Amino acid sequence: MNMTKPAVEARQLVKRYGEITAVVGVDLTIQPNSIYALLGPNGAGKTTTISMLTTLIQPTEGSATIAGYDVVKQADQVRRQIGVTFQETVLDDALTGRQVMTYHGRLYGMSKAQRQTKTDELLALVELDDAADRAVRTYSGGMKRRLELARGLMTDPKVLFLDEPTLGLDPQNRAKIWDYIQDLKRRNGLTLLLTTHYMDEAQQLADCVGIIDGGRIIAEGAPRNLIDQMGSDAITVSGYGNRDGFLSRIDELPFVQSVTTAETITQLAVDSGNRRLAEVVTLANQSDFTIEDISVAKPSLADVFLKYTGRELRDH
Ligand SMILES: Nc1ncnc2c1ncn2[C@@H]1O[C@H](COP(=O)(O)OP(=O)(O)O)[C@@H](O)[C@H]1O
Ligand SMILES: [Mg+2]
């Protein structure tokens, strides 16, 4: 029997702001030394969930523990277990990178020697050692995110919370942050909870993904398992004309496992995309539906999102 406590456990977490319910009832169990990604569009409730788990705001209802400590009743102990970086950069850019790190260490009661050792080690880890004594205002966006990541690690957290760690970064910088995140799990035994609206990020990084929408987790599992539920291939069609007629006939084809319709696109889960493409096109012609765009792809988390919400999760 596995007696290890979950790193994060939430039971029916709710957060209301007057009329608005930002988080509707989130259940979460995150195993130690794993990466969990909360994936969802803007306004889904990701930041609010992280804020409750990191003791910044109190839940309206429900409960949560971090490494066994209650986020409301044992907030101080929780804070000693965690590191957190938020989606908006909150760095004082008049400071140098090194000062950002050492001030943070002082805030958490680290000795001067500890602060220096840790600062050197972490700035090297995120490859900011050369820029350590420059003012943060001279840093690029990617450098600032790396500095925040380093700062989040200053206190040797067991659980690291990263709210949109790669927001606004170019692909190269995003890939670099991914490497650090994976390293932290592998080498330091960390548990990471990250939020993202980039599905490729969740797919690449996470041991477990929770798809969140409208303040609820609507699907959860290992990325591979979520995707495997989607059938072997996805044909995505858009066009105009008699879509309803086309859809009703498509639904009757034996090789079509499921049909999902969204505002502009229709997606068919099929056994073998390339082999079925021509049949789909023929059927569209026969139903007076004009195809503007048709493509075959292996299903992704984006398709899982579409299936559960009927909406497209657009990367932007
Ligand atoms: N302090 C607040 N007051 C009122 N509404 C809020 C507040 N914080 C968040 N919300 C609302 O709650 C919902 C979830 O927000 P948020 O957790 O920031 O989503 P995400 O991080 O997934 O984009 C949104 O509709 C947002 O407008
Ligand atoms: Mg957010």
Can you walk me through this structure?
It is a single chain. The chain is α/β, with parallel strands linked by helices and 316 residues long. The chain folds into two domains: 8-226, Rossmann fold (3-Layer(aba) Sandwich), CATH 3.40.50; 231-298, YebC, transcriptional regulation domain (Alpha-Beta Plaits, 2-Layer Sandwich). 36% of the residues lie in helices and 28% in strands. It contains eleven helices and 14 strands. It has helices at residues 46-53, 75-81, 97-107, 112-125, 141-152, 171-188, 199-205, 223-228, 243-250, 273-286, 301-309, and strands at residues 8-17, 20-30, 35-39, 61-66, 69-70, 82-85, 159-163, 191-196, 208-213, 216-221, 233-241, 256-261, 266-270, 289-297. The strands form three sheets. Strands 6-7-8-3-9-10 form a six-stranded mixed sheet, sandwiched between helices. Strands 2-1-4-5 form a four-stranded antiparallel sheet, covered by helices on one side. Helix 3 packs across helix 4 and helix 9 (243-250) packs across helix 10 (273-286). It is elongated and about 75 Å long. Residues 17, 20, 22, 40, 42-48 line the site of adenosine-5'-diphosphate (ADP). Magnesium ion (MG) is lined by residues 46-47, 87, 163.
